[in-house]
Amino acid sequence: LAATWLERSGETDAATLARHWERAGETQRAADFQARAGARALAEGDLDRAIECFAASLHDDLPPESRAARLLGLARAQTLRGAYGDAAAVLERFDEPLVAAAGGRVRGEVGALRGRILYHTGRAEEAEDALRLELAVLDEEQHGHLRFEFLHILFWAVWVQGHYDDAGPVAKQLALEAAHDHRPEHLCAAKLAASYHHVVRGDLGAAVELAGEAVQQARQVRHPFRETDALILQGSALELVGLLDEARAALEAALGLATRL
Predict the structure, then answer these.
(1) What is the DSSP string of 66-77?
(2) Please, are residues 158 and 174 in contact by the beta-carbon 8 Å criterion?
(3) pTM as predicted
(4) How many CB atoms lie within 10 A of CB 231?
(5) Going by C-beta distance under 8 Å and a sequence separation of 6 or more, which residues neighbour residue 52?
(6) Angle, in degrees to the nearest 10, between helices 204-220 and 224-240
(7) Is there a contact between 166 and 158 (Cβ–Cβ < 8 Å)?
(8) For the chain, what is the radius of gyration of the CA atoms?
(9) C-alpha angle 222/225/228, rounded to 5°?
(10) Considering only 57-61, 212-216, 239-243, which range has the smallest mean pLDDT?
(11) Is the pLDDT score of 23 beyond 70?
């Protein structure tokens, strides 16, 4: 079989191997490589490809852990793509037996995605309530990406409702989680949230400094969307303190990025 020869010869492209195993009639083997291809596409930001691959990777004989991982990958890609209805439908497939068999982290991942969907579909108050409930039962020792994601969505759900005083403590928790895991993308998001909070408190110097640090960290992790947000905030804060040339430079950089995106 060509698929066997390719795999033994060191072929590492999961999409290529998936195609060859599919042609050979080895659907389960093909599905495994489709899942790998979906994960890679999601990491690279190719959301349409990720959705296609994760959907193709699902079949009836998957063990609970694999089924949960692939459904989560599909729902994440759909959420990032803005297909919130499709993502919500995928999350409905997480019945209690599947969640129980797949483990507690899956329950948290599903909760975080549901909160994100509520927030992005204009239901910020519902998102806040759901996220606070999930955080209350989340293991206090479970730091890292999952807890940070809950807090990050919660900050924006609170912020867009205009509850700025309530957003402040969440921004501080975000900063603590980011300092704990030292992930640049988390530090960037936490500093951006803190910068917004400093703006409404009137501490514009801190807002400018934190937004500038967020810009640098967004560049470090190659996150142009967050870099654009940070540049806009930095430019706005610089304008408020009267540094008009610096503000213009930041806003022009943001415009250039947004145009390319």
Answers:
(1) HHHHHHHHHHHH
(2) no
(3) 0.78
(4) 25
(5) 38
(6) 160
(7) yes
(8) 21
(9) 100
(10) 57-61
(11) no
